[in-house]
Design brief:
- This protein is an alpha/beta fold and 304 residues long.
- The chain has a 6-stranded mixed sheet, sandwiched between helices. Strands 11-12-10-13 form a 4-stranded antiparallel sheet.
- The longest helix has 16 residues.
- The structure holds adenosine-5'-triphosphate and magnesium ion.
- The site of magnesium ion has 4 residues, from helix 1.
C-alpha cells in the first residue's frame, strides 16, 4: 500500500479541513482526489509528506508515519505542488542542480539526470534561462522535472495542469500516463473532470473535508448519473417544464448556458426533437463533471 489513511483529520483552530477520512492508495494505481475549492485536497497531500501535521487518525505512507519518518518518505516521493515554489532568480539548470544535491543525488549523477529530465519535458532549450522569464507552462513542466529527479515510486500531482493551454495539458497527460505505465503510483488532484477521466483508475470526491463517493470514473458515472444529457436553449424553459411534469424520468438542471436534461436513453432525448420540435444545443453521454456537480451540491435535481 502506498498510502493508508484511517479516520484522518486536520483541524486549523476550530475549523476542520480534513474530517475523518479513510482511504487507500494502492501500488501502481493512479488515484484521483477531486473536490471543490477548499475541500481539503491540498491539506491531505501536505499531510502525506509531512509539511502539515495531522490532528487525529492514522496515516501511513510507504508504511511509515509522516510525523516521525518524513525524511524516509520524501526520498521516495515526488510532488508537483499546487504553487510552483521555484527560485525564480536562478537559471533552470542551476535550480535543478541545487535541488538534486538537496535530495541527495550523488554529485556525478546530478547533471545527467537533470539534463535527461529537461529533455523529457521538452525544456532543454531553456536550461540556461532564468526561471523568472519562463512562461507558466514552462514553469509547470520544470516543477515536473523537479518532482521526477528523485525517481519517485509515488508521484503526487496537486492540480498539475491548472492554467495551462490544451497542448501542454495533453503533453503532460502523456507523460503522466507513461510514468503510470512504467509502474509509478500517482495521486492526482484536479478541477478538470476530463483529466481525471483520462488518467485515473480510481478516485474519490471530497467535499467539506469528507469523502462523499469513491470508485472508477466509469463506475461513478454509471452509479450517480447514468444515461445521456441533452442541453436545450433557455427559451425552451416552458416547454420543458410542461414535458418534464409528464415524463418524470428526466432530471433537470438549469444554468446560464442552457437547460440540462438527463435521461436513461438517447432515444428519450432525441424524441423531444422529433415529437416536440425541441432543438437541443448538444446531446452527449453523461460524464464525470455531471457526477461532480451532483455530489457537490449543484445536482440535476429530481424535483425540478
Ligand atoms: N494553514 C492553514 N490555516 C488555516 N486554514 C487553512 C490552512 N490551510 C488550509 N486551510 C483551510 O482548509 C480548507 C481546505 O484547504 P485546502 O487547501 O486543503 O483545499 P483544496 O481542496 O486544496 O482547495 P483548492 O481546490 O482551492 O486547492 C480551506 O478552507 C482552507 O482555507
Ligand atoms: Mg488545493
Amino acid at each position: 500500500m502506498m498510502i493508508t489513511a484511517k479516520s484522518l483529520t486536520k483541524n486549523f483552530g476550530n475549523f476542520t479541513a480534513v474530517d475523518h477520512i479513510d482511504l487507500n492508495v494502492h501500488q501502481g494505481e493512479c488515484f484521483g482526489l477531486l473536490g471543490p475549492n477548499g475541500a481539503g485536497k491540498s491539506t491531505f497531500i501536505s499531510m502525506t509528506y509531512g509539511t502539515v501535521q495531522r490532528s487525529g487518525g492514522e496515516l501511513l505512507v510507504f508504511g511509515h508515519d509522516p510525523k516521525t519518518h518524513s525524511r524516509d518518505i520524501k526520498k521516495r516521493l515526488g510532488v508537483v505542488t499546487q504553487d510552483n515554489a521555484l527560485d525564480e532568480s536562478l537559471t533552470v539548470l542551476e535550480n535543478m542542480l541545487i535541488y538534486s544535491s538537496f535530495i541527495g543525488i550523488p554529485r556525478h549523477e546530478r547533471k545527467k539526470r537533470v539534463l535527461d529530465l529537461l529533455d523529457y519535458m521538452n525544456l532543454t532549450h531553456k536550461k540556461d534561462t532564468k526561471i523568472i522569464t519562463l512562461s507558466g507552462g514552462m514553469k509547470r513542466r520544470l516543477v515536473f522535472v523537479r518532482a521526477l529527479l528523485g525517481q519517485p515510486e509515488l508521484l503526487i500531482l496537486d492540480e498539475p495542469t491548472t492554467g495551462l493551454d490544451p497542448a501542454i495539458r495533453h503533453l503532460l497527460w502523456g507523460k503522466v500516463k507513461e510514468l503510470h505505465q512504467q509502474g509509478t503510483s500517482i495521486v492526482l488532484t484536479t478541477h478538470y473532470m476530463h483529466e481525471a477521466e483520462v488518467l485515473c483508475d480510481r478516485l474519490v470526491i471530497m467535499n467539506n473535508g469528507k469523502i462523499s463517493a469513491e470508485g472508477s470514473p466509469r463506475d461513478m458515472i454509471h452509479k450517480h448519473t447514468p444515461g445521456y444529457i441533452g442541453i436545450f436553449p433557455l427559451e425552451d424553459r416552458e416547454k420543458i417544464h410542461k414535458l418534464t411534469s409528464q415524463i418524470n424520468s428526466f432530471k433537470v438542471h438549469e444554468d446560464s448556458s442552457g437547460i440540462y436534461l438527463r435521461a436513461a436513453t438517447l432515444e428519450e432525448l432525441t424524441s423531444l426533437h422529433s415529437q416536440h420540435g425541441m432543438n437541443p444545443l448538444q446531446i452527449r453521454p453523461s460524464n464525470l463533471e455531471d457526477v461532480f456537480l451532483k455530489l457537490t451540491g449543484q445536482e440535476l435535481s429530481d424535483d425540478a
